[in-house]
Design brief:
The structure holds two protein chains of two kinds.
Chain A lengths: L1 E5 L7 H11 L4 E5 L7 H5 L2 E15 L9 H5 L5 E4 L2 E4 L9 H5 L5 E16 L2 E8 L7 H8 L8 E4 L6 H7 L4 E6 L3 H17 L3 E6 L7 H9 L3 E5 L3 H8 L4 H4 L4 H21 L1
Parallel strand pairs in A: 1-8, 1-9, 2-7, 2-8, 9-10, 10-11
Antiparallel strand pairs in A: 3-6, 4-5, 6-7
Chain B lengths: L1 E6 L7 H11 L3 E5 L8 H4 L2 E12 L2 E2 L9 H5 L21 H5 L5 E2 L2 E12 L2 E8 L6 H19 L3 E5 L6 H7 L4 E6 L3 H16 L4 E6 L5 H13 L3 E6 L4 H8 L11 H15 L2 H4 L13
Parallel strand pairs in B: 1-8, 1-9, 2-7, 2-8, 9-10, 10-11
Antiparallel strand pairs in B: 3-6, 4-5, 6-7
The chains are: A alpha/beta, B alpha/beta.
Keywords (chain A): Iron, Iron-sulfur, Metal-binding
Protein name (chain A): MinD superfamily P-loop ATPase, contains an inserted ferredoxin domain
Organism (chain A): Desulfofustis glycolicus DSM 9705
């Protein structure tokens, strides 16, 4: 089973929820940090990293001896990663989406495989949790391929928690799609609700069951609760604003370790997720 | 003309609340909301839309079953596993590369351009604003960001407005790169936490990669004074100017609930308002925005 922890708005508490949830579940669990642009879960989990592997993607390299300057490669490239100047082909590797159309179309077999580094995959353990994160290279624009690499560490029998990136576009979609449940972390403010609605629409497109965690539940206003009722979204946990929680977070500590009374609350959150998935299955 | 882009790396540090507060303190500017994925600035500025335009992003492949001979060449060429065994393109997985379209021997694959969102030119009580809404689960956010920044520049040019204030997205990927390339300076809003510091360092590295001057503002600095001191030290070592430190204050959220900027919120602590105003003056007078080469802005990179 894969649970993705997502949100429309950034900074609502995805990492807090995914890390505290992972350490509170009484069975073997994998935690994947798919917020590869700004991976933070490791700062709270403090895993012992055992492996660090750079990940590359295809970009074209032109064999000048074979190239006759026909320009078919530039023609097929929808991403402007190739341009022909006179008889010379220029490659802009940062724009390449690795579709390999240029290699497929070249009549002279002059397009060779080169590589662009997407970032690094780090993996390791802490207290029985297998942790994997992607860390995107500074200057790299495309996060989805690296997100997919992180997710390739899941096996069908695993319980996996994914810390997803914020937003509703391709990075968030690539972290959420094909998961069994989306745990949406939000806050009851106009920004939180507005972005939650966008994220919930994205989850509907993906057709995944979804439940909410309301963080800082006593700030803002009450519109979020009306929306949750209207959409039939279960609120599985409310975490009130507490300066001491914010301070524990700011130091990189886990709430369930600093305030042990939170541990059974996060364990019950997992049970509530399992119940929600089962209820939905039985309805269908 | 100058362009200040407000970013953070980490989400939820206060980018949009501060962008709106600065908009209320500034004059002769154009506003731009480049967080097209989860745009929120309009919730505080209530823009009156004057012009609405469809954003046509990339194209998505679509197989015509009547013409498809199920030869499988498209599946062989698709590097994104977007075509099912029964020859249906999954529009979420389709990258829009069009390789299948080119190679289909029956020419049975259409490649219609997609409406991926909308963008708007609006009036607000604090001047013109360019903003957008990316469609749900759509790609090409970087392209849309580049487009609206270009629009903001055109409006500034036509109306003799000297400054563009751009609210940027979180992260360091495609929409962020599209938001900051060619800008005069970026203002990084950081919160004093281990993750705030970590994410600030990555976004500062990104700005340095594109040679854009960086200003730092620490928000909610009193939630962890030790971490704020660490951030101050690290910024100093990197030669980055800290334009101010703002304490945690519920007035930001209360103003947001009212749908107004902090600057307009009557119950806000006057000391807080003075502080935010001073920070804005510091930003305007900073070397990053004032130095001579800052007068010429560079092209936006299309990604």
């Amino acid at each position: 089973m894969i649970i993705s922890v997502a949100s429309g708005k950034g900074g609502t508490g995805k990492t807090t929820v995914s890390t505290n949830l992972a350490v509170s579940i009484d069975r073997e669990v994998k935690l994947f940090d798919c917020d590869v642009e700004e991976p933070n879960a490791h700062l709270f989990l403090n895993p012992e990293f055992e492996n660090s592997t750079p990940v590359f993607t295809f970009v074209p390299k032109i064999d000048a001896d074979r190239c006759n300057g026909c320009g078919k490669c530039a023609e097929i490239c929808r991403f402007n990663a190739l341009a022909v100047l006179g008889k010379k082909v220029l490659v802009f590797p940062e724009l390449c989406h690795s579709c390999e159309g240029c290699r497929d179309i070249c009549p002279e077999d002059a397009v060779e495989e080169d590589a662009r580094e997407l970032g690094v995959i780090d993996s390791g353990h802490r207290n029985g949790i297998f942790f994997v994160q992607g860390c995107m290279r500074i200057g790299e624009a495309m996060s989805p391929p690296l997100i997919r690499h992180v997710r390739s560490y899941a096996r069908p029998e695993d319980l996996v928690i994914i810390d997803a990136p914020p937003g509703t576009s391709c990075p968030a979609i690539n972290a959420m799609k094909g998961t069994d449940f989306v745990l949406m972390v939000t806050e009851p403010t106009p920004f939180g609700l507005h972005d939650l609605k966008l994220a919930v629409e994205a989850v509907k497109v993906l057709n995944i069951p979804c439940g909410l965690v309301v963080n800082r539940s006593d700030i803002g206003d009450r519109q979020l609760w009306d929306y949750a009722v209207q959409e039939g979204l279960p609120i599985l946990l409310e975490i009130p604003f507490d300066r001491s929680i914010a301070e524990i977070y700011s130091r990189g500590q886990l709430l369930v370790e600093e305030v042990p009374s939170w541990r059974p609350i996060f364990a019950r959150l997992y049970d509530a997720i399992v119940d929600t998935i089962e209820t939905r299955r039985s309805i269908q | 003309m100058k362009e200040l882009v407000i970013i953070s790396g980490k989400g939820g540090t206060g980018k949009t609340s501060l962008t709106a507060a600065f908009a209320a303190l500034s004059s002769n500017h154009v506003l731009c909301d480049a967080d097209v994925d989860a745009a929120d600035l309009h919730l505080l500025l209530a823009p009156q839309i004057k012009q609405q335009t469809d954003f046509i992003g990339g194209s998505i492949a679509s197989i015509r079953p009547a013409d498809c001979t199920r030869c499988g060449i498209c599946i062989e060429h698709c590097r994104f596993s977007a075509i099912s065994d029964d020859f249906v393109v999954n529009s979420i997985d389709c990258e829009g590369c069009g390789v299948c379209v080119t190679f289909c021997p029956e020419q049975a694959i259409d490649f219609p351009p997609q409406k991926c969102g909308e963008w708007y030119i609006s009036d607000t009580r604090f001047g013109p604003m360019v903003h957008a809404r990316l469609g749900i689960a759509e790609e090409n956010s970087g392209k849309l960001v580049s487009l609206i920044r270009k629009q903001a520049r055109d409006i500034a040019e036509e109306n003799g407005r000297e400054l563009i204030i751009t609210d940027g997205p979180p992260g360091i990927g495609c929409p962020v790169i599209a938001s900051i390339t060619g800008a005069t300076a970026v203002l990084v809003i950081v919160e004093p936490s281990v993750s705030g510091l970590h994410d600030m360092q990555r976004v500062v590295d990104l700005a340095s990669h594109f040679r854009i001057p960086v200003l730092i503002c620490i928000n909610k600095f009193d939630l962890n004074p030790d971490m704020s001191a660490t951030i101050t030290t690290k910024a100093g070592q990197a030669g980055l100017q800290i334009v101010g430190r703002i304490p945690f204050n519920p007035a930001f959220t209360k103003a947001m609930v009212e749908g107004i900027t902090l600057t307009e919120y009557r119950q806000a602590d006057p000391d807080l308002l003075t502080l935010v105003s001073t920070i804005w003056q510091t930003i305007v007078q900073s070397d990053a925005l004032q130095k001579k080469q800052a007068d010429s802005i560079l092209p936006i990179i299309n990604i």
